[in-house]
């Protein structure tokens, strides 16, 4: 089983952490998926997409069909801006449980669907908080625990846990490179 980390070149807050991951030792070129480059490091796969993440439904299934590898988790590197308008770091599940079947979506996904619960969300959030503190990113970046789903964007259909590691960048922080790699 593999963890699929998904980045997009359309989002600086996505490609920055992806570049930091790939700068670490152990990465090798992996199989391409629909003309998108991928990289492997033990049980982790990182794929760089050109499209915005909101149009990528069933990426786990497509990866499994293309490679024969079972995807255990998918982590999206993306951005949001905190309500305070400060750059923010968060981890949250995805879904649109507030919509009814047949209601219009502004992005990918399925009305009324939500990612299944996973016990790793809590530990991953605590790790994110510890990394942010140890790298002196607080208070410049808020570390937000979002117990709600991302309701308005980044909504996809997947069969297993899907998370977003949101590196929220506002205008003041859009050029800051952030590495969450220990």
TrEMBL record:
Pfam families: tRNA_deacylase. InterPro entries: DtdA. One of its GO terms (molecular function) is D-aminoacyl-tRNA deacylase activity. Keywords: Hydrolase, Metal-binding, Zinc. This is D-aminoacyl-tRNA deacylase-like isoform X2. The lineage of its organism: Eukaryota, Viridiplantae, Streptophyta, Embryophyta, Tracheophyta.
